[in-house]
């Protein structure tokens, strides 16, 4: 089930980004989530992997991470060629 994510732009910190290492004066560090957000069944996020429906006419489901599988840190290495 989808969830709603709210990012708190009022709570920022100064420091280095944990992902790219860049220095920033406004790093986000707080978000809240709530269950049962809007269900966008017909819209697919371009960076989310989906699996083929098991039966014809079924809806596509996003692929969930598995223990020991690829994670977001692996994304750049998978899409870059060189």
What's the structural blueprint in terms of helices and strands?
Elements: E1 3-7, E2 12-16, E3 23-28, E4 31-35, E5 50-51, E6 61-62, H1 75-79
Antiparallel strand pairs: 1-4, 2-3, 5-6
Write up what this structure looks like.
The chain is mostly beta strands and about 80 residues long. It has one domain (about 5-80). About 5% of the residues lie in helices and about 30% in strands. The chain contains one helix and six strands, in the order ββββββα. The strands form three sheets. Strands 1-4 form a two-stranded antiparallel ribbon. The chain has a two-stranded antiparallel ribbon with strand order 2-3. β2 (about 10-15) and β3 (about 25-30) form a beta hairpin. The longest helix has 5 residues, at about 75-80.
Could you give a short description of this structure?
This protein is mostly beta strands and 82 residues long.
Q: Using the alpha-carbon principal axes, give the shape.
A: flat
The number of helical segments is: 1
Number of domains: 1
Through-space gap between termini: 37 Å
Fraction of residues in β-strands: 25-35%
What integer is the average pLDDT?
Answer: 80
Specify Rg, calculated over alpha carbons: 17 Å
**Category by helix and strand content:** mainly beta
**pLDDT < 50 runs, ≥5 residues:** none
- Helical percent range? under 10%
Would you report the number of β strands? Answer: 6
Order of helices and strands: EEEEEEH
């Amino acid at each position: 089930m989808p969830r709603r994510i709210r990012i708190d732009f009022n709570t920022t910190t100064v420091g280095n980004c944990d992902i790219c290492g860049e220095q920033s004066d406004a790093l986000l560090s707080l978000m809240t989530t709530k269950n049962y957000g809007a269900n966008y069944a017909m819209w697919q996020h371009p960076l989310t992997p989906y699996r083929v429906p098991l039966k014809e006419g079924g809806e596509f489901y996003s692929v969930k991470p598995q223990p020991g599988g690829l994670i977001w840190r692996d994304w750049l290495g998978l899409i870059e060629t060189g």
